[in-house]
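Thread: Modeling a multi-component assembly for a lab meeting

Hi all, long-time lurker, first post. My supervisor asked me to bring a structural picture of a complex we are working on to next week's group meeting, and I have zero experience with this. I have the sequence lines for every component (656 residues in total). Could someone generate the structure of the whole assembly? Inputs are pasted exactly as I received them:
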Amino acid sequence: MVPLSWYLFLSAALFCIGLYGALARRNAIAVLMGIELMLNAVNVNLVAFWRHVAPQNLAGQAFAIFVITVAAAEAAVGLALIIAVYRTRRTVNVEELDLLKG
Amino acid sequence: MDFVSDLFVNLGRVWTDFLSMYLAPWLVRLINWLIVSTILLVIGLVTVLFLVWLERKIVARIQDRPGPNRVGPFGLLQTVADAVKLLTKEDITPAGADRIVYNLAPALATFSALMLMAVLPWGPRLIAADLNIGVLYLVALGSVATMAILMAGWSSNNKYALLGGFRVVAQLLSYEIPMILAMASVVLLAGSMSTQAIVEAQSPLPYVVFTPLAFLIYLLASLAEVGRVPFDLLEAESELITGYNIEYSGMKFAFFFLAEFINTFIVSIIAVTLFLGGWRGPLVDRFPVLGVFYLGIKVFVLLFAMSWFRGTLPRFRIDQMQMFAWKVLVPVALVNLLIVAVAVKLPGGLWAQAAFALAGNVITLLVTLGLLGRAARRFAERRGERLPVTT
Amino acid sequence: MLPLIFIAIAAMTLVGAIGVVTARNLFHAALFLVLSFFGVAGIFITLEAEFLGVAQVLIYVGAISILIIFAIMLSRGIARTAGSVLNAQWAVVAIGAMLLFALLVVLLLQINWPVVQAAAPPDAIAELGRAFVDEYVIPFEVASVLLVVALIGAIIIARERES
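Re: Modeling a multi-component assembly
Sure thing. I ran the full set together rather than chain by chain. Output:
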């Protein structure tokens, strides 16, 4: 079996890359892609812990499936919002979406 | 005689024993995997050669003309001639096309089609990879194919290819759901997602007796997934100038064509495996090698039926296709799943469960046809025409 | 053998992830994301969670990626990625992400995880199915309701205004 720390290293790297993508890109869809990367990192973490620490208890896999489900729902609604914003404001640049700004 | 009765498995065993005398176990396994993959690849490609010829002959006879009969005996080498022609065509890349994605798309389409062959059971112990999630694997690879088509449509740098790609993806996504629901009812009946276990569980009765409705739904949905008539809006040569593969020429176009026919072949095998008993048949316990033969016959019947559809049916419009998927197939598939779920838990033994499921299916089919007929009549009356009333 | 496979798949995942956050062309970023998803599915399979691996391919590659690509197509501005792809705070974010990564790595190398050398349960899928209707039935039902709500909500939000 591959050591647990390798999987945790991978998931930490994936999470930080996703965090950078979500906070540093201008296009709203690119931000969403960063969020998906972060959720994938969380899933890798969950399943790695399930396999190495408690393989009899299926909570790890069940939790990962729920994370996938919620990520799918969130991606659908997020992208619908982006499309609606694009229709009215003609831009998906997060720096230009500042109507609520003080 | 005993050796021949289970020919392929025994050949494999003899070969593995021979290799194990000289090489390390992991190397023997690796070589065996490579050989099995090559054999499956060759089976897929050679069958496609035969399949293209078969379809052209059948469609031609339905249209009262001879079909290809010049190249080789009965025109059997026509596909080879077509392949050579496509190979010698100029390989054009349209200006402004995204080169890597443009070249990757046909490869991905064929790749996902060929990968499906790994979990198909060809005989009693003859399967490349007996995954315990075989059915889910089939579904997942089908959804990868939609990605390939979207890539093809986008990278051609052509409005019409993009539009064609969108419509194709909409159709493929819509028909995935009834297909998955139909497969789910079979998984419920068999209690396992492994394709080999599903074939072995169809012991006295094939699952088409339990749920003929699921078989019909699966057949229609997979026809739409593959892109055959009557759902072949994707490759309609006279509409939308063939859609997403308009900018592809030569071998890349051949790859898309190849992917479609491999998909047709594999989808027929899946339908036979899930519903018609796969390699089951008389005397297959004593002579397992007959399993391949029975599988071949059943698959041939299905392929003949699909070519028959191609010769006789007109094609749907995109909105008719979508309506059919979402308003007819999905509710019917859900009701069917419910009936099968109840039938599996009935206490009376196998025959009582089969009778209940079959009765439920027939009732659902009649109700659906009645509702559809009424809707069609109302639609026709609204448009001012009278449908021919058949009593 | 398995460590080599893990390193190859992990490298593919990280290359895909870096491609997502640095690609100039948004469609290429989406394709790199698909590569990452395949990589994560491979990681699940090395962890003997095959159902999750195939479900990852089915849901993420087969549905969410296509959704993202549709959204990219439907929101193509006239001036395509003019200027930089990064917004004004990218330097701070880069430093923050690297600090977070360093912190996580230091933490996880210090903690002694209670690793068990047990084998994975043989019929994990049947157990998972049973768990969904036994212990996790409430989250399961709530997830179904969430999906229906998201479906209806997304359709309504993204619908064309009939005006």
